[in-house]
Task: inverse folding
């Protein structure tokens, strides 16, 4: 399927660029321009319509797949499933807010 008509590239070019650019990490919005240039042979976007539709949808699908791989404890509705390894019990000395995940990379607790 054609993704960009202005600079003539298709979905395969986008998939290939994603695998070259970020095969195992999420693509941030600031990276979209560099990813586009990989697809277009270094040419800047013309009208930008593809960037607002199919191109971004493909990046979002990639990011969702990476999120599923890196955090398999999320259910289909995005709610984290509590297991012994990821229970939500605050570590000793935390602020007692009940939402502390300081040692798990989550939001930082503000001591109260």
Result:
């Amino acid at each position: 399927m054609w993704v960009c008509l202005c600079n003539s590239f298709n979905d395969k070019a986008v998939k290939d660029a994603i695998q070259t650019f970020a095969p195992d990490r999420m693509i941030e919005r600031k990276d979209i321009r560099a990813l586009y240039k990989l697809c277009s042979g270094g040419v800047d976007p013309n009208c930008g319509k593809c960037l607002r539709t199919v191109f971004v949808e493909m990046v979002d699908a990639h990011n969702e797949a990476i999120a599923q791989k890196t955090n398999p404890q999320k259910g289909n509705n995005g709610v984290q499933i509590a297991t012994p390894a990821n229970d939500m019990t605050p570590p000793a000395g935390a602020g007692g807010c009940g939402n502390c995940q300081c040692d798990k990379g989550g939001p930082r607790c503000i001591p109260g």
In short: Residues 79-96, 103-112 have pLDDT under 50 and may be disordered.
